[in-house]
Write a structure and sequence with these properties.
With about 950 residues, this protein is an alpha/beta fold. The protein contains 38 helices and 25 strands. Helix 22 runs antiparallel to helix 24 and helix 30 packs across helix 31.
Length: about 950
């Protein structure tokens, strides 16, 4: 590696006619920035003449037109100066593969050799050094670090910003502890050479400096860990008074410390009711519409009760986003209002937390015989940096590459590895620390999954508590169903099988063989081969079982195009399935017995810490395999009040088969083991009523006999002034006119609407098929409309990434299905128009819905009125709530489903919404109304 000029970096950025130089695409602009001795010493940019047409989308993205290239120099004219700058330097680019292939293509066309020096990718470097960022686009990084980036997608500006980003990242790299740099050097052999160069130079500098270890780090067993914040738990917690009006009132404590404070009567009412139910030991259901400030309304009485009882109050949410919002935004605001510190601890399931002992063992492996993949190396580097920054060790903080999440399965905490007696890292480990923090906290913020696990499996993960708030409570019934149900797939078995490492020189076999060689008298030399044969036999039987299952299920249900296929275990478990399952069951027991036997035998030997960790991993894998076999058995055994179904891919491949089971009705379980075991539970959400009634929620959650108190709080927004609901009367209907005509009408309506809205449009669909079909029809028109389109499943499935891209473009359309109907906050100009394509009824072939409906019909009830309609109304209200998020928002809601006006049940949807102007008219009239709404002088 050439280190003579290791302090010189040349950043290159190119704008091109396309993405494929091998197909003739050419550079049309090149930007360059020289970084030398820690400073940007030179910047330059130039248009580049070429004989290719500039595609319209490139011109729209960059602003470069063919006129700009008329007098531009050729690349061959620019090449000598570029090569002079590159002499002895490390070449840097943001997405180096792209820029380097174009640069080398042009160099070779001009008669020069391609660049052969060190290269550095700032995307790779940023991913490594900033492992918790949401994204690594240059514009996002510039915004994150306050770098001036006036002309995105112009080569000169992009190169200069990348140069300043490089300097920031080098500064961070050189500030890392020496032990972290040592670990990085050992695990980045597949990164770009420039990255290795930077790490090597940082190591040299830090090794010779007098401040090798910053006081903010704790160096423990070759890891640099962030020191946890000192706690002052020796001080007695101060009790607080409770007076909702004094706290939330117009001249209350909150008004004096919050610049965005708005007095809301509903907030006061909710706080008082939560307080009263906590005091009286009663349950409360609160529907708090958007804008009522429900989070603070329950946090204030929750802290009061916690201090009064000297015991934590638990707050449970469905989504990670709300957990973080409560911890990072709402609790600090409450602290300011109360004028005292509040201890709020986030506690999740064990698998969310990193096991340091496993991580240390993995590092030892990749420094030895194990060959780590590129994704594993990048993930390890991210984890090493993250350890210097995280106090929680929670994977939710990380933005790992795709392969990194498979690695996490190896590194996450589990009961075998995480015990005080056998873990050298126990005093530093994150999961025990999280549990300890929870025991001392005023508020424990957790998720529905852990809450339900604690109740139904009696794991005692959560400390003892009497008072609970369930936010996002409209998800509780579904979450409980998932928890009380089960699923298993062929792929899950394969992941377990691969962890044994039967086919590779890695995994358990490679490691256990080394241990056996070190203790030859303890275990027979033939042991590994015998175990491999057992596992290969078990693998064969798994294949046979899933082939038999797929055949039996498809034979039973000829609708092979259906995504889900219901089955009854007694119908599917024919002779072939039964015999295959018994062979799998027996083979699995043999494997588990043999591997547990060797751990017992080897534990009698004098083992190294690494060997101890390996045996813990063996036990964990045996437990996982045993659990998987038990779950599969439950999916092949009929139980009353359960529904069973299977899913596979379009080709019905057995290796893509997944089996599910769910309880049809969980009201009895919730009533008996959940609500009866907690003194006071507050259930809250923005969507819990249908037509102003809580009865559907009460029935679903098993609260019929409990008689909870109910409170419905209307929104403080003036919907009659801020929004309108518009329904086109001339729109086709899917049932009568066909899906193709309906889809074409949706696309045409959207195209027509863009000129009136002139801003962001959110489109909510009820199926992925609809999203893809409308997106396909819209795509050819987006350039003419000067709009960007982001569609779930077309532009990716990452919701937060799609929302961020949507918000970054002023004229954009975001299309999504289920997960986009709730949980995304798009205030103000972020959404000007909301399109609800169809009323969100559950698919009629949904297995759980079908089973529930059948049960209701069997008892003489109407499945439509008691199940389908309430579900759809609650989902509709969630979607409706995406538009108006603050008192200053204005926007239009278009419902392209005439049933909301024409069907008898349509009024149930309308009566569940706040009062606002509703118009049922031809499309042209609604588009004219939209034009008037957005251009009446009240908005730009």
């Amino acid at each position: 590696m050439n280190l003579n000029k290791s302090n010189k970096f040349v950043v290159i950025d190119v704008e091109t006619t396309g993405n494929r130089p091998q197909d003739g695409d050419r550079i049309i602009e090149i930007g360059l920035a020289v970084v030398w001795n820690g400073e940007v010493t030179k910047t330059a940019s130039s248009f580049v003449s070429c004989d290719q047409e500039i595609p319209p989308f490139v011109s729209r993205l960059t602003g470069i037109t063919k006129d700009d290239l008329i007098d531009a120099p050729s690349f061959s004219e620019l090449a000598p100066r570029i090569l002079d700058d590159l002499d002895g330097a490390c070449l840097v680019a943001h997405h180096i593969d792209f820029d380097l292939q174009f640069l080398n293509n042009e160099l070779e066309r001009a008669g020069y050799e391609s660049f052969q020096g060190n290269v550095l990718d700032t995307v790779e470097m940023a991913r490594m050094l900033y492992p918790t960022l949401d994204g690594y686009r240059l514009a996002s990084l510039a915004e994150q670090f306050n770098l001036v980036h006036d002309q995105p997608h112009r080569a000169g500006s992009d190169a200069e910003v990348t140069a300043h980003l490089l300097l920031l990242m080098k500064k961070k790299l050189y500030a890392l502890p020496f032990v972290t740099l040592q670990q990085l050097e050992a695990c980045t052999t597949d990164t770009f050479s420039g990255m290795q160069l930077c790490i090597y130079e940082a190591m040299k500098t830090v090794r010779t400096s007098h401040h090798k270890n910053d006081s903010s780090y704790a160096i423990y067993r070759d890891f640099a860990l962030k020191k946890p914040q000192a706690n002052n738990r020796t001080q007695a917690k101060v009790s607080i008074p409770f007076h909702a009006e004094h706290f939330f009132g117009k001249d209350g404590a909150l008004s004096s410390i919050s610049p965005s404070f708005e007095h809301r009567n509903g907030q006061v009412d909710m706080a008082e009711n939560v307080h009263a139910c906590f005091e009286d030991g009663k349950h409360l259901i609160v529907e708090a519409a958007t804008g009522t400030g429900k989070t603070l309304a329950y946090l204030y009485p929750a802290v009061y009760k916690s201090r009064e009882n000297e015991a934590p109050v638990v707050i449970a949410t469905e989504t990670v986003a709300l957990q973080q919002q409560i911890k990072d935004r709402d609790v600090p605001l409450l602290e300011k209002g109360l004028g005292l510190p509040i201890e709020a601890a986030v506690l999740k399931g064990r698998s969310h937390y990193l096991c340091l002992q496993k991580f240390a063992h993995f590092l030892e492996q990749i420094r030895g015989a194990r060959q780590a993949s590129y994704d594993e190396q990048l993930s390890v580097a991210q984890l090493l940096i993250w350890l210097t920054e995280t106090e929680t060790g929670d994977v939710e903080e990380l933005n790992l590459p795709n392969g990194g999440y498979a690695l996490w399965e190896e590194l996450k905490s589990d009961p075998e590895s995480c015990t005080h007696s056998n873990c050298t890292f126990f005093s530093r480990c994150y999961y025990p620390r999280a549990r300890d923090n929870a025991r001392q906290a005023d508020l424990i913020i957790t998720n529905h999954a852990l809450l339900l696990t604690d109740h139904f499996q009696e794991t005692s993960t959560l400390p003892s508590y009497e008072h609970l708030v369930v936010d996002e409570a409209h998800h509780l019934e579904e979450a409980a169903g998932r928890h009380l149900g089960a699923s298993m797939s062929y792929q899950h078995f394969m992941r377990l099988y691969n962890q044994f490492g039967v086919q590779e020189n890695a995994g358990l076999f490679a490691n256990i063989s080394v241990v056996i060689d070190r203790h030859p008298t303890a275990v027979s030399a033939d042991w590994p081969n015998e175990r491999k044969q057992e596992l290969q036999s078990l693998h064969y039987e798994w294949n046979q079982l899933f082939n038999a299952l797929q055949t039996a299920i498809v034979k039973k249900d000829k609708r092979t195009r259906q995504k889900s296929e219901g089955y009854l275990p007694e119908d599917v478990v024919d002779t072939n399935v039964f015999d295959a399952w018994k062979r799998v069951e027996a083979g699995g027991k043999d494997v588990i017995r043999a591997w547990r036997s060797i751990t017992r035998t080897l534990k009698k030997e004098a083992l190294t810490p690494a060997e101890e960790t390996l045996l813990q991993k063996v036990n964990t894998l045996c437990n996982d395999l045993e659990e998987a076999q038990s779950i599969l058995a439950s999916l092949l055994t009929s139980v009353e009040n359960e529904v069973y179904w299977a899913e596979s891919d379009a080709n019905k491949r057995p290796d893509r088969l997944r089996l599910y089971r769910r309880p049809i009705n969980i009201s009895e379980q919730l009533s008996g083991k959940f609500f009866s075991n907690t003194k006071s539970i507050i259930l809250t959400s923005a969507t819990l009523t249908v037509k102003g009634s809580f009865q559907y929620t009460i029935d679903q959650l098993g609260l019929t006999d409990t008689q909870p108190k109910c409170l419905q709080l209307s929104s403080p927004f003036q919907y009659e002034k801020q929004a309108q609901l518009l329904v086109p009367e001339d729109f086709p209907e899917i049932r009568q006119d066909g899906e193709e005509r309906f889809t074409e009408a949706v696309a045409q309506f959207l195209r027509s609407l863009t000129s009136s809205v002139n801003g962001r449009i959110l489109v909510l669909c009820t199926s992925h098929q609809m999203v893809k079909a409308v997106s396909r029809m819209m795509k050819p028109h987006m350039q003419r409309l000067n709009y960007s389109l982001f569609a779930q499943g077309v532009n990716g499935d990452n919701r937060s990434k799609l929302v961020k891209q949507f918000r970054n473009q002023e004229r954009s359309i975001l299309m999504g299905t289920t997960t986009f109907w709730e949980g995304i906050d798009l205030p103000g100009e972020d959404v000007r128009a909301l399109i609800i394509v169809r009323l969100p009824f559950a698919p009629p072939d949904d297995p759980v819905y079908m089973a529930k409906a059948k049960q209701i019909e069997a008892s003489g009830g109407s499945a439509f009125s008691r199940l389908a309609l309430p579900r759809a109304v609650l989902r509709f209200k969630q979607g409706f709530g995406r538009l108006i998020r603050t008192k200053r928002d204005r926007g239009l809601i278009f419902v392209l489903d005439k049933r909301i006006i024409q069907a008898r049940y349509g009024k149930v949807f309308l009566r569940s919404l706040p009062t606002l102007p509703s118009v049922f008219a031809p499309s042209k009239e609604l588009l004219a109304r939209a034009d008037e709404f957005f251009h009446d002088g009240k908005r730009p």
